[in-house]
Design brief:
Number of helices: 2
Radius of gyration: 28 Å
Largest sheet: 2 strands, antiparallel
Strand content: 5-15%
Length: 163
């Protein structure tokens, strides 16, 4: 074998650079899509969580209207709504005849956009039955509705606090 017929295998520097540029372009296109997908999933989770809390509040009120919850229960307002969110988790007495408690939530759900170190009560803006629909503060008498306490704009342009 002569020294002039040597064959080297491998990639040239130009081929490696071209490959690296192509991979970088593909990654820069995929990253915004991945971020959008994560945000969309969090928004879906926020909708589901708000629906879960609101359904529990409505079930509590329905039980009060139907007489399954005592009208003199200390955790219930005069309008039949829980005084605080925690009542939905702790439950209310069923009465002397049946015993036990009605529980409406296993736990107060976390806001998917909230900081993991914050308290659950900081995740939600509460609204009482007597409060105005656009009230900035909670009257403190009962919990009629909840909204997200996290400032931000959704993909569709609405504010999370208005959900």
């Amino acid at each position: 074998m002569s020294s002039s017929s040597k064959h080297f295998s491998g990639f040239t520097l130009v081929e490696l650079l071209v490959t690296l540029v192509i991979i970088s372009i593909l990654a820069s296109v995929a990253m915004p899509y991945a971020e959008l997908s994560v945000r969309r999933e969090k928004e879906f989770e926020l909708h589901r969580t708000l629906r879960e809390i609101r359904t529990a509040i409505d079930a509590y009120h329905d039980d009060w209207v139907a007489g399954r919850i005592s009208r003199t229960d200390a955790s219930t307002s005069a309008d039949g709504y829980p005084k605080v969110l925690e009542v939905l988790v702790k439950g209310v007495d069923r009465g002397l005849s049946s015993g036990g408690k009605y529980r409406y939530l296993r736990a107060i759900p976390k806001n998917p956009f909230a900081d993991a170190t914050s308290q659950i009560t900081e995740h939600w803006i509460l609204r009482g039955y007597q409060d105005e629909p656009d009230a900035a503060t909670w009257g403190g008498r009962d919990v009629y509705d909840v909204h997200s306490a996290i400032a931000g704009t959704a993909i569709d342009g609405t504010e999370y606090r208005s959900w």
